[in-house]
Design brief:
CATH topology of the largest domain: MetI-like fold
Number of helices: 12
Largest sheet: none
Number of domains: 2
CATH superfamily of the largest domain: MetI-like
Distance between the termini: 37 Å
Order of helices and strands: HHHHHHHHHHHH
Strand content: under 5%
Helix content: over 70%
CATH architecture of the largest domain: Orthogonal Bundle
Structural class: mainly alpha
Radius of gyration: 25 Å
Number of strands: 0
């Protein structure tokens, strides 16, 4: 074997060894993070249960993990929990779809026509910074006390930020790629579908991860004011009749739902990057 081939072989071994060492270190770090997250969660739940058991914290006001579990089981047994959870998820998914569809469509319109973008940009900024909870009572007057009001309120929470973010991302695409399409005789439509949108798919997925949480927040805000069912309704109704176990249970379920929806989108993001 020549010296050159021996050198290449030894270099390949060094690279593979370094990669293996890096992967082991990364896996170890990930396991440590998961372990500490699990320890924090278990410690919080244990401290909460112990403090309510010994009367340090009022269990009537703050409930307890055991009472929350009992409430979940009892409401799941008669189907109430699944009904309210299903309503909230349905409203969230509809709002999430509308936010992404309308956000993408209007961002394309703004990118397509710069004059429209210059006219509408200050209004979009104002609407995005406006507290959406202030609009919810107006939506009730306009649309009535129903699911439409909740969905519109949820869409209003996220859609303006989505439009602004996507429009900024569209404008930040490398100019050289656009000039290349134009040099080859491509139209503005070709630029949109062959450069702008493909270049921003990672941004779209990242924005979806944000929008799913904002849609859920908007739905809960709407359910606080205009709902007859849903987890937001349970929170408001439970606080009014002092069934605080319902309130804490709904908050816990909302945390689990938000985490689950975020993890699903993160999974698809990783699949796309592969």
């Amino acid at each position: 074997m020549s010296r050159k081939s021996k050198h290449v072989s030894s270099s390949s071994l060094n690279v593979s060894a370094a990669q293996e060492a890096y992967l082991k270190k990364h896996l170890l770090q990930t396991r440590r993070v998961r372990l500490f997250q699990f320890i924090i969660l278990i410690s919080f739940i244990s401290l909460w249960e112990i403090s309510t058991y010994f009367g340090i914290v009022n269990s009537f006001v703050f409930s307890s993990p055991s009472r929350v579990i009992k409430t979940i089981l009892s409401m799941a047994a008669n189907g109430q929990l699944f009904y309210h959870l299903g309503i909230t998820l349905l409203e969230t998914f509809i709002s999430f779809f509308l936010v992404n569809f309308v956000g993408l469509l209007l961002a394309i319109v703004l990118w397509w026509n710069e004059s429209i973008a210059k006219v509408l940009e200050p209004y979009l900024i104002v609407l995005n910074s406006l507290p959406k909870s202030a609009l919810a009572p107006v939506f009730i007057v306009w649309l009535g006390n129903n699911m439409k009001t909740i969905i519109v309120a949820a869409v209003s929470v996220a859609v303006f930020g989505s439009i602004i973010t996507l429009y900024s991302d569209f404008r930040s695409v490398e100019e050289d790629k656009i000039k290349l399409i134009q040099t080859l005789g491509g139209t503005k439509r070709d630029i949109l579908f062959k450069v702008i949108i493909p270049s921003n798919i990672p941004s779209l997925i990242s924005l979806m991860k944000v929008n799913i949480g904002l849609s859920l927040v908007g739905v809960i805000i709407g359910e606080f004011l205009a709902a007859k069912a849903g987890l937001g309704y349970l929170i408001i109704y439970g606080s009014q009749v002092f069934k605080l176990d319902w309130v804490i249970m709904s908050i816990v379920i909302l945390c689990i739902v938000a985490t689950g929806l975020y993890k699903v989108l993160t999974y698809f993001e990783k699949k796309y990057k592969k």
